[in-house]
Amino acid sequence: MAKIVIGVIIAVYVGYLIYRQVKNIKARNFCGSCCGCPSAKSCSRKSNKGDES
Description:
Layout: H1 2-26, H2 44-47
Protein backbone atom coordinates (compact mmCIF):
# COMPACT_ATOMS: atom_id res chain seq x y z
CA MET A 1 0.00 0.00 0.00
CA ALA A 2 2.82 2.40 0.86
CA LYS A 3 4.45 1.80 -2.53
CA ILE A 4 1.23 2.78 -4.30
CA VAL A 5 0.90 5.99 -2.27
CA ILE A 6 4.52 6.96 -2.93
CA GLY A 7 4.07 6.20 -6.63
CA VAL A 8 0.94 8.38 -6.80
CA ILE A 9 2.69 11.26 -5.00
CA ILE A 10 5.63 11.08 -7.40
CA ALA A 11 3.32 10.91 -10.43
CA VAL A 12 1.33 13.95 -9.24
CA TYR A 13 4.52 15.94 -8.65
CA VAL A 14 5.93 15.03 -12.07
CA GLY A 15 2.62 16.05 -13.64
CA TYR A 16 2.82 19.38 -11.85
CA LEU A 17 6.38 19.95 -13.08
CA ILE A 18 5.37 19.19 -16.66
CA TYR A 19 2.35 21.52 -16.40
CA ARG A 20 4.52 24.33 -15.01
CA GLN A 21 7.17 23.89 -17.72
CA VAL A 22 4.55 23.91 -20.50
CA LYS A 23 3.03 27.04 -18.98
CA ASN A 24 6.46 28.72 -18.91
CA ILE A 25 7.20 27.77 -22.52
CA LYS A 26 3.86 29.15 -23.69
CA ALA A 27 4.71 32.40 -21.88
CA ARG A 28 8.11 32.37 -23.68
CA ASN A 29 9.79 32.11 -20.28
CA PHE A 30 12.10 29.18 -20.92
CA CYS A 31 14.09 29.38 -17.70
CA GLY A 32 11.15 29.74 -15.34
CA SER A 33 12.00 33.20 -14.11
CA CYS A 34 14.87 35.67 -14.16
CA CYS A 35 14.83 36.12 -10.40
CA GLY A 36 17.88 34.37 -8.99
CA CYS A 37 19.12 33.21 -12.37
CA PRO A 38 22.93 33.31 -12.56
CA SER A 39 22.86 34.43 -16.20
CA ALA A 40 20.09 37.03 -15.79
CA LYS A 41 22.39 39.93 -16.71
CA SER A 42 23.50 38.37 -19.98
CA CYS A 43 20.19 36.68 -20.85
CA SER A 44 18.85 37.60 -24.28
CA ARG A 45 15.29 37.53 -22.90
CA LYS A 46 16.07 40.20 -20.32
CA SER A 47 18.18 42.36 -22.65
CA ASN A 48 15.59 42.21 -25.47
CA LYS A 49 12.62 42.77 -23.18
CA GLY A 50 12.27 46.42 -24.18
CA ASP A 51 12.66 45.63 -27.88
CA GLU A 52 9.51 43.49 -28.06
CA SER A 53 6.55 45.11 -29.80
